[in-house]
Every structure is written in structure tokens, then in C-alpha cells.
Description:
Blueprint: H1 8-11, H2 17-50, H3 53-56, E1 72-76, E2 83-86, E3 92-96, E4 109-113, E5 115-117, E6 123-126, E7 137-142, E8 152-154, E9 160-163
Antiparallel strand pairs: 1-2, 1-9, 2-3, 3-4, 5-6, 6-7, 7-8, 8-9
Amino acid sequence: MHRTSVAPSLTRPVARPRARSRVLTRCVADENARARVAGAALATAMTLLSCSPALADAPGANAAAPTSAFAGRYADKKHPGCYREIFPDGVVAGEDGDPGCDATTPRTRAWRLRGVIGVDDRSIFIDFSPKGGPANLIGTLVSPTSEYPRGGVAFPDGNVWAKTP
């Protein structure tokens, strides 16, 4: 008698649909919980930045502003030659070298972070946690001075990003 062999992957029992359904339901519930936490964190940030809960809940408060005083490119003294850019919707992008970004630095690391510009357009809340920094850093708009002719963004640690042309 001739025996045919069956591939091992075909002989494994298939997970019951009911078990898969429970797993999928649990994953969806976890995602919904994460979304609620993220939404609550954003609402808290908006409230802190606006200094007024009524302004944070105003229509369009969470919408991207067509322009912002923060929008533009910046120089960071702690990372010479590495660009920083803030977009009107609060997204912050840049690159880091070790310590700077010049021709002698062979490798730089680009990054992109989420930010929320306050409704007063004088403060910005930036989540630096993807870079290993604080999750709730607030930057304040700096008016033009002799040291910062185009203004900039000041952070609580004393660092200032100077706005560039």
C-alpha cells in the first residue's frame, strides 16, 4: 500500500472563529482606549495652552491655522547647523547630529514630532517623547530682539530656537 504524506502545516488545527473574534474584539477595545487617552491628552494641552477652557472648546480651536507666528525654520545652538521647522499645523521637524549637522558629521537623524499651537499663537506644546525627551514641553514665542532679530521659540531649559530667513 502506498502512503501519501501530508504537509505538517495542513494537519495543524485551525483556530476556532469564536476565539479569533474575542481576540479581535479585545484589540479593538484596546485601540479605542488608546484613542480616548490621546484625545484627553490633546484636550488637556489645548486647555493649558489657551489658559481658557472656553477657548479650547471653541469651534475651530483644534483645526490647523492657515498661518502661525511659529511657522518657519529655526536654528538651535545646541545642535549647530541642524534645522528645526515648525509648520502652521503644529508639526515640528528637524534633524540631529552629534552634536551638530555639518560636513564633518557623516550621519544625522531626521525626526518629526506632533505639536499643538495655542489658540493665542504665543505658545506651542511639543511631544518630544519619540526622541527620548519630555512628552509635554511648552515653547513660548520670543519677540524679535537684537540677539534674535526674527524672534524665536524659548523653552523652559533656557534653550532658544532662533528663527531664520
